[in-house]
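Lecture 7 notes: from sequence to structure.

We start with a single chain of 115 residues. Read the sequence below before looking at the structure.
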Amino acid sequence: NQDKDSASRDLLTSSFYMVALNPKTGKPANINQLLLKKEEDQRAFDEAEDRKKLKREHQKQNLFLKDSPTDAEKVLLHDIFLRNQKRENAKHSRNPADDEDQYVRMKDTSRKSIS
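Now the structure, written as tokens:
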């Protein structure tokens, strides 16, 4: 529950596509168009159509979908990957003793009841 005064914001949005398939061919099949009676439904439908157009446009412009990377691009991508791996490994291989003041050992803890 959120207080009425607290601000909220979307952290994640998603959408999914449903495709009717022809049972004989397994390929997409045409279906009857939706009858949108409410203005809100029409707006949502129009927004989805806009996203669909943007997705198609993005796919046309995405070079990796058209051509494989060149040898030079492969080397560059691999170098980027290795640098990121090295950074991630460094994060996880730190010596816990360096952060000893941030941890409490189990043997140094006690359980208390609240009365």
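Helices lie at 39-61, 63-66, 71-92. Keep this in mind for problem set 3.
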